[in-house]
Amino acid sequence: QVRIVESGGGYVQPGGSLRLSCATSGITFSRAVISWYRQGPGKQREWVVDINQDANTRYANAVKGRFTGSRDNAKATAYLQMNDLQPEDTALYFCRAAGRSIDWGQGTQVTVSS
Length: 114
Description:
The protein has strands spanning 3-7, 10-12, 18-25, 33-39, 46-51, 57-59, 67-72, 77-82, 91-98, 102-104, 108-112. By secondary structure, it is an all-beta fold. The strands form 2 sheets. Strands 2, 4, 5, 6, 9, 10 and 11 form a 7-stranded mixed beta sheet that branches. Strands 1-3-8-7 form a 4-stranded antiparallel beta sheet, with no helix packed on it.
């Protein structure tokens, strides 16, 4: 059974940082492309970052230079380090694993407000 579980969200002031985690089970993690997406209030879900099997990353322009995606294949877990957070980063953040199938987590809420 596939499980994708995000954690690490919370409430932070502008300029602050958070580190999200995406713990997986039931997939061949090392072969999966892991992506982070987010959906802000009243907005469509948008792509944030891809982390490929070699841990190479590709970022949306909105987060480039502030967010860093990474993965630990031994732990079957991916991460999203988010620095210099701004109110427009407020969203429900989702992890997606694309391997033999595409599987999503339930999301973790990030709120950036003063």
